[in-house]
Each structure stands twice: as C-alpha cells, then as structure tokens.
Amino acid sequence: MSLIHLSYLNELSEEAKAYTLYFITQNCPDLIGRSDEIFFADCEIPFKDGVAKYKTAIETVYEGLIEYWVIYKNNAAMGVAQRITYDQEFETSFIYFKLQSENDKTIQHEIASLPPVIAEIK
To answer: Which domain of life is it from (predicted)?
Structure first.
C-alpha cells in the first residue's frame, strides 16, 4: 500500500487541504509545524451516499488512536470524518469542506461503522 502526502491529494482544493490539516492538528498538536509527516492511504469504503477515498490513523499519548477518512460524494470532496478511540470507547466528528445541513446521528453512525485504519497503515 502506497502512502500519499496530504499536499498531493490533488482532488482537494488548497482550502480543503488546509481544513484537513487544521482538523488533524487540533487533536494531534505534536504535528503542528510538521505537516510533512501527514500521509494518507487510498481506500474505497462506502460511507452513507458517498465513499471514503483516503484514510490515515495517528496514535497519540493523550487522545489514543485517531482515525481520519476523506469522504467524497459524486466524485467531489465532501469532508473529513474523524474517530477517536480510547479505552474501548470512541467519539466521532465530521467537518464539511462546504457548509451544508446533514443529520448528525446518521453521520455519527457511519463513522462508527467504518473499518479500523491502523492495521493497514502500519
């Protein structure tokens, strides 16, 4: 499996790359100023009425395992899903590259059901 640096995700606008970087560094402050260490793997995972095309996972001392998926809908980047796992529990969140309304419960369920990233990234 080849890894792709965030800056080479050519389908993403520069604004979407900046949002993604900001979203990741909010829970991984050790990566602030070290964006050269953020890589994604290709994937094709169904997500609601779209697809996760890229994924990554980061293990942190404070937050535990944090997984990210870049979600596309109709071949356009829609946003980034995040799942933080710690002590057999997890929390989910999602950022949209463009503001739109969405049922949060549906998104949370979709993020919770995504397959783990860490086993494939290592």
So the answer is: Bacteria
Q: Using H for helix, E for strand and C for coil, what is the string for 78-104?
A: EEEEEEEEECCEEEEEEEECCCCCCCH
Question: Is the Cβ–Cβ distance between 10 and 16 less than 8 Å?
Answer: no
Cβ of 85: how many Cβ atoms within 10 Å?
Answer: 18
User: Do 23 and 80 form a contact (C-beta atoms < 8 A)?
Assistant: yes
Question: Residue 106: enclosing H or E segment and its boundaries?
Answer: helix 104-112
Q: Which sequence spans correspond to the domains of the chain?
A: 3-121
The pair of structure tokens assigned to 41 is 């793997």
Distance, CA of 41 to CA of 120 (rounded, Å): 9
Per-residue pLDDT reduced to its tens digit, 19-63: 899 888 888 877 778 878 889 999 999 998 899 999 999 888 776
